């Protein structure tokens, strides 16, 4: 016990000044000359790479080589990257649970993304409109790190589809057909969407979120005929 206590105090003393000093970057636009001190395994800030950054994935891999945790946000927007490997050492993406800790948007040539070390995030995942990005190999990583805190769409393969709003007619006009794995809370309340929209859900086999049916005019839940599993998270 006391040995642990001493170790813990030692750790806190060492890391605290470091965290709030040289490892904090606020808003940081990544470029080829970005540099984090070698002893910053945990960095703080908002880190952005976009069409103006003039940096390659290989250069970023060197810049991030010693980083294991990012407290804040990583944004990869509008780049010409074909692969993103520079986050390969990242184990934790933490920060504001209302914010997106990882946002990958509008990367028209991106085909692969590798986050082999990621175990946990308490923020949200956004991966939108990367038309040639196939996420299949990352599905289980994203599932365990983000569960249904995600907005993932418009990629070649999305690891499921998302419900980010209550299932109301006005908000689900475009609910996709053929959605097998559904992330989000399915809340059916009040007057239900038209039957043809409800039956677009008949492909769903797994719901990662809550199912709530209250005060509706529904006469059947037959449109959920293939639903096998509901997991409501931790
Ligand atoms: C990290 O390196 C800098 C510069 O050498 C030093 O001032 C600082 O004390 C180091 N921090 C830790 C936690 O090792
Ligand atoms: C992505 O592209 C869409 C459509 O062009 C645009 O509205 C949006 O602002 C872009 N997002 C980012 C993060 O650049």
Automatic annotation (TrEMBL):
<keyword id="KW-0732">Signal</keyword>
<dbReference type="InterPro" id="IPR036941">
    <property type="entry name" value="Rcpt_L-dom_sf"/>
</dbReference>
<feature type="signal peptide">
    <location>
        <begin position="1"/>
        <end position="21"/>
    </location>
</feature>
<dbReference type="Pfam" id="PF01030">
    <property type="entry name" value="Recep_L_domain"/>
</dbReference>
<feature type="domain" description="Receptor L-domain">
    <location>
        <begin position="39"/>
        <end position="137"/>
    </location>
</feature>
<feature type="domain" description="Receptor L-domain">
    <location>
        <begin position="178"/>
        <end position="232"/>
    </location>
</feature>
<dbReference type="InterPro" id="IPR053079">
    <property type="entry name" value="SPS2_domain"/>
</dbReference>
<protein>
    <submittedName>
        <fullName>Recep_L_domain domain-containing protein</fullName>
    </submittedName>
</protein>
<dbReference type="InterPro" id="IPR000494">
    <property type="entry name" value="Rcpt_L-dom"/>
</dbReference>
């Amino acid at each position: 016990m006391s040995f642990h206590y001493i170790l813990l105090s030692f750790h806190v003393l060492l890391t605290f000044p470091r965290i709030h000093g040289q490892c904090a970057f606020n808003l940081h636009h990544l470029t080829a000359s970005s540099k984090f001190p070698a002893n910053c395994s945990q960095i703080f800030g908002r880190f952005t790479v976009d069409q103006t950054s003039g940096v390659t994935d290989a250069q970023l891999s060197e810049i991030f080589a010693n980083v294991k945790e990012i407290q804040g946000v990583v944004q990869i927007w509008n780049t010409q990257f074909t692969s993103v490997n520079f986050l390969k050492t990242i184990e934790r993406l933490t920060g504001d649970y209302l914010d997106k800790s990882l946002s990958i948007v509008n990367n028209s040539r991106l085909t692969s993304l590798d986050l082999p070390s990621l175990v946990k995030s308490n923020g949200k995942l956004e991966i939108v409109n990367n038309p040639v990005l196939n996420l299949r190999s990352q599905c289980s990583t994203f599932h365990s790190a983000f569960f249904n805190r995600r907005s993932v769409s418009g990629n070649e393969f999305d690891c499921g589809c998302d419900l980010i709003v209550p299932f109301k007619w006005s908000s689900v006009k475009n609910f996709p057909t053929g959605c097998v794995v559904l992330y989000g809370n399915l809340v059916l309340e009040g007057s239900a969407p038209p039957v043809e929209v409800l039956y677009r859900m008949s492909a769903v086999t797994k719901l990662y979120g809550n199912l709530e049916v209250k005060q509706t005019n529904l006469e059947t839940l037959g449109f959920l005929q293939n639903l096998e599993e509901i997991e409501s998270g931790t």
